[in-house]
Amino acid sequence: MKLEKRFGKNVRYWRKQRGISQEEFADRAQLHPTYVSGIETGYRNPTVKIVGRIAAALNVKPADLFEENIEE
Question: pTM for this one?
Fold first, then answer.
């Protein structure tokens, strides 16, 4: 699986585990909801700063967003 797809899948997994909507998550991460959707589908390739904001919004380590064995 491509890194962008895995990252997006993991972002979606952690967001759902936290029980928050894409809009609420986008607000917490200070991102536009359509950008979040692009990340979760693997279309967008976020910068390191954005990865940090996403991790903080989900209360996980940035490395957790790149794990290969997360199931949805």
Answer: 0.93
